[in-house]
Design goal:
The protein is an alpha/beta fold. The protein is built from six helices and five strands; from the N terminus they run E-H-E-H-H-E-H-E-H-H-E. Helix 4 runs parallel beside helix 6.
Length: about 150
């Protein structure tokens, strides 16, 4: 079934479950590097709150340096995971923003016909509080989405 897709975006998070998603795509190792991308999204450190100016926090907390460090650590971590799964480290990208919308946008802009993403399958209050990136991707994607249950 996966063989029919010509361009795959594999979205992994920073949890220890990221390898489960990379390993779940059966023929990913046999694809040419240009046929897939591995992405991870760093969410904003400060989310604007009504009536608050986030630039005041940014100026006082040296957020650009913190975000740069987080991005570098994320890149290193995801590249190591890719290498451990026999995948090209050159296909790894770290993006910034709201994970659901960034993943959907990246897939659409890159012409992907499949997004692979993990889902913790949280329910009830936990899902409400934590949100669901997989659900957000699924309901707004312009291509097929394969969710992998991660434990």
């Amino acid at each position: 079934m996966i063989a029919k897709y010509s361009s795959i975006v594999v979205a992994v998070d920073f949890s220890e479950n990221g390898n489960q998603v990379l390993e779940a795509v059966p023929d990913l190792k046999n694809r040419e590097p240009g046929e897939y991308s591995i992405i991870s999204v760093v969410a904003p450190l400060i989310t604007p709150v009504s009536g608050m100016d986030p630039s005041a926090f940014a100026a006082s907390a040296s957020l650009p340096e913190i975000e740069a460090e987080i991005t570098q650590q994320a890149l290193q971590s995801v590249r190591e995971r890719a290498a451990n799964c026999g995948l090209s480290q050159d296909r790894v990208q770290i993006l910034h923003g709201n994970p659901s919308s960034v993943i959907r946008s990246f897939a659409e802009e890159s012409g992907a016909d499949l997004i692979v993403i993990g889902s913790h399958a949280r329910k009830g209050v936990a899902r409400f509080i934590l949100g669901s990136t997989a659900t957000g991707v699924l309901h707004g994607a312009t291509c097929d989405v394969l969710t992998i249950r991660v434990t």
